[in-house]
Amino acid sequence: MKPLMLTGASYLQKAGLDVCVLERRHLIGGAAVTEEIVPGYKFSRASYVLSLLRPQIVSDLDLKKYGLKVYLRDPNAYTPLIEPVRVKGQERYTEFEALLDRIVTSLDPMLDSAPVDVSSPWKHRSLREKYATLTKAKQLYNCARQLGRDSLAFYELMTAPAVKVLDKWFESEPLKATLATDAVIGAMMSPESPGSGYVLLHHVMGELEGVKGAWGYVEGGMGAVSNAIADCALDHGASVFTKKPVKEIITRNNEACGVVLDDGTEIKAKVVLSNATPKVTFLDLLTENVLPEEMRKDLELVSFESPVTKINADPNTGPDSVMPHHRCTIHLNCEDTADITQAYLAAKAGEYSSRPMIEMTVPSSLDPTLAPPGHHVVLLFTQYTPYTLAGGKAWDEDEKNKYADMVFGCIEQYAPGFQESVVGRDILTPPDLEQIFGLTGGYAPGFQESVVGRDILTPPDLERIFGLTGGNIFHGSMSLDQLYMSRPVPSMCNYRLPVRGLYLCGSGAHPESNPNIR
Questions:
Q1: 71-112 per-position pLDDT tens digit
Q2: CB count, 10 Å around CB of 82?
Q3: Are residues 422 and 320 located together in one domain of the fold?
Q4: What would the pLDDT profile of 14-28 be if each residue is shown by its tens digit?
Q5: Rounded to whole angstroms, how far apart are CA atoms 388 and 126?
């Protein structure tokens, strides 16, 4: 169960329906959870920053009443350089940021409505369906009209490689590489991949505290988002159960009528909402003969490739000296877009680069509830790591430790003394990789002396623990063939399924905005 499923439960319960929420793990939230890997230290174990939770949901469900508190990050990003270089382009950056803001403002209405339905012949639709289609088509037209002079820039972002877009705007390689991280984060593509510009655009589509494009930390970790939504659902009468893995969705006469749990318990329902990935929902939980064969083949071809590994490290005491750059995302190995591309090519060959792309965050620099006074929690999100290593080799503990040591070694180059702080670690598996390092301590010389353990999640680990097929944090690749009316596949456009009463409500369906996107 993840926040979007809990969101659906809250809305339905408020509307007067009787809702039952089933969570596979021991705590609610899916990948948006807070866990004490070390007693006294709270880690956003998978998802670690918030932005794409729709403001209307926060308002409708009164989430602040249920404890949701967000710390906006200022500044937003920091990229240290091993070799000093003069970075130019501040004026152009302001213009570029304004362009992205205008584009996402134009597209914003599309994020709160279903795609235009092109899946059934016009003559076979009811009058109500025709009216709904025309309304959405008008909305698309209005979005296009509002884009106006930015239409060509939007088209380029949707289709071109991010490097092409960034090269037109900037000369400074460190600036381009830093911006390029948002064009590939969580995606198995390089800044040179066509369409990577859309991923960059996607990451500024959110809003926090009325600030468009802002990202922030949630007090108490990302689990606090899930808990606030769950408390709203419970307050209105919903039932929420943990440690209740679903084995099968029950269907009769092409209609969903309940679920069967792993322990054999059968729960009847008039409507079933699934926040699992499209693969899990339609290929694993439905019996094979329920979906048309052509639809099954389409679903089998959906890409769930993921390049991410998340590492959470445990702290010892460290100096309590928080600087402004500790509050933002710290980008390491991001001096040159060529390094990012090289890391991508290594992963496609079943290897990992000696200079992976690293995003480091220190949420305790703003949120004092995560660690004891003078201590800090550090999270590392790294790319690129393949689901399966070259030669079919799996991610065993030795390989994960090797990768983690290499990542720590990279950090050592920027923060001398880092590795000396690591005295223990707890490692999971690579496929669950989606977000890489969760370290505790300050980002400064001597940091390693503050780390006493680490939790490593590779793509297979992310899949096993959080149910993220392939370890993909978006529930499916963000390529153009898997967006809008084609998400997850064209034959399911507008949530029209051959199984009545069954709905996909996670990131695998449009809109792919999700509070646990990163």
A1: 998 888 999 998 877 777 778 999 999 999 999 999 988 888
A2: 11
A3: yes
A4: 999 999 999 999 999
A5: 48
Residue found by looking up tokens 């596949």 in the block: 489
Q: Are 417 and 448 in contact (CB under 8 A)?
A: yes
Helices 151-159 and 127-147, interaxial angle, to 10°?
100
- Judge if 27 and 155 occupy the same domain: no
**Domain encompassing residue 193:** 90-208
Give the C-alpha separation, 322 to 330, whole Å: 14
Instruction: Give residue 512's pLDDT band: very low, low, confident or very high (50, 70, 90).
Output: low
- Residue 134 CA from chain centroid, whole number: 32
> Nearest Cα to 437, choosing from 344, 181, 422?
422
Domain count, the chain: 3
Q: Are residues 508 and 487 in contact, defined by beta-carbon separation less than 8 angstroms? A: yes
328 & 447 share domain = yes
Q: Could you tell me which of 463, 466, 441, 435 has the C-alpha nearest to residue 48? A: 435
* 164 vs 175: CA distance, rounded Å: 14
| Length of the chain in terms of residues written | 518
Closest CA to 154 of 205, 214, 190: 205
Residue 113 and residue 260 in one domain: no
Residue 80, burial from CB neighbour count under 10 angstroms (0-12, 13-18, 19+): middle
Indicate whether 112 and 256 sit together in one domain. no
Under 8 Å between Cβ of 34 and 223: yes
Alpha carbons 510 and 518: distance in angstroms, whole number: 17
| Mean pLDDT score of the chain | 86
Query: Furthest-apart CA pair in the chain: how many Å?
Result: 70
**What DSSP element (H or E) covers 297?**
helix 293-300
**Can you tell me whether residue 201 is helix, strand or coil?**
helix
Domain-located, residue 516: no
Same domain, 150 and 280: no
The residue to which tokens 């009164």 are assigned: 62
The pLDDT of residue 441 is 30
Which pair of structure tokens corresponds to residue 429? 């598996």
pLDDT at 439: 30
Write down the pLDDT at residue 418. Answer: 61
Q: Tell whether 318 and 426 lie within a shared domain.
A: yes
Question: What's the pLDDT tens digit per position in 109-139?
Answer: 888 888 887 767 777 778 887 888 888 888 8
Give the angle 480-482-485 at the CA atoms, nearest 5°: 95
CA distance linking residue 507 with residue 515, whole number of Å: 10
**Can you give the pLDDT at residue 493?**
77
CATH number of domain containing 9: 3.50.50.60
Q: Which two tokens stand for residue 337?
A: 């877009």
Is 294 a member of any domain?
Answer: yes
* Backbone torsions φ then ψ of 418, nearest 5 degrees: -60, -50
Residue identified by tokens 């996607």 is 202
Quick one: 109 exposed, middle or buried, by C-beta within 10 A (0-12, 13-18, 19+)?
middle
